[in-house]
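Incident log, structure service

09:12 report received: a user says their structure output differs between two submissions of the same chain.
09:20 pulled the input from the user's history:
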Amino acid sequence: MGFYRKNIGSLQQASRIALGLGGATASYMLAGPPYGLAGAAVGVVFALTGIVGYCPFCAVAGLGRGQRRGR
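09:34 re-ran on a clean worker, output below:
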């Protein structure tokens, strides 16, 4: 996939994957049907940004690997 540039580091990738999958599982197991599925979907998307290594919200905000704030 050469059409994007990774903008999150490896530590943030690992934490996004772990927290996303954990949040998705907890939300699906603990919440009721409409809210549990919505929370699980958010967790899966969060984990996918970790797997891919690209976060569109970080790109819009100008945050990313190797970039300095305030420029």
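09:41 both user submissions now match this output. Likely a transient worker issue. Closing.
09:42 reviewer note: The radius of gyration is 14 Å. The chain has a mean pLDDT of 87.
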